[in-house]
Design goal:
Blueprint (H helix, E strand, L loop, with lengths): L10 E10 L6 E12 L9 H17 L7 H15 L2 E2 L2 E11 L2 H38 L3 H7 L17 H13 L5 H15 L2 H17 L3 H13 L1
Antiparallel strand pairs: 1-2, 2-4, 3-4
Length: 239
Amino acid sequence: MRWPSRRRTPSVHAFTDVCESRDAGLAFEVSARVEWRWSRRGPAPADAPLIAGQLARQLVEKTLGEWSVLRPHAAEQDLAAVLRDAVPLGGDVTVTGVTAALHADAPVVAAARRKQQTRHACELDELERRQARARMEFLRDELLADPSSARLYTLLPPSPRLGGPLPGTDPAELDELVRQVHRWHPESRWVVIAQVLQVYGERITEAAVQDHLKILRAMLAARGHHDLAAQVAAVVARG
């Protein structure tokens, strides 16, 4: 006759740890209680509690890595659900139950709030930059595309969001503004040529750059542009 096996009473291993949160460099303080049992015959090895703790800790770290220290209660609730659904866990050392309590120190929470505010400020700055770029492109490519468009725009009510020339602006000033905008347009001829020359200058040796500048200086002087030739000569002299 076989007697029914006697169910072993779970052993308990408690530990505290610091687990990283979703906020880089900021962590939760964790107090965990792990219930475990040895599934083989005979006494459990001496490191069995550590193995049980490691199994539990891996779950705790994975779960808390998805939460901010600004939401400790929500993190604790989520962690409780994950730990409940995960057990039993393990092999010869079987984790049968895990409970964990979380805490975030006031300085840690304050640091997380500062990071959140900084991140929000950076997002606002980026939004303003995108809006500014969009307004500049609109002004450059449409409103200031030619003198006629610029003058027509001055007949419209002023737009504080778009900016641009105001009603009553001197037509001569508008023409100059349109000329300057087109002169420095990213796709204008001289801007593209300047970019090509810059890339070319980076690909050749310094000696070759100096030779090209001397040729340019001589060419400018030969055509009577002595002021420009002097500027090139000054660049050559600086080396």
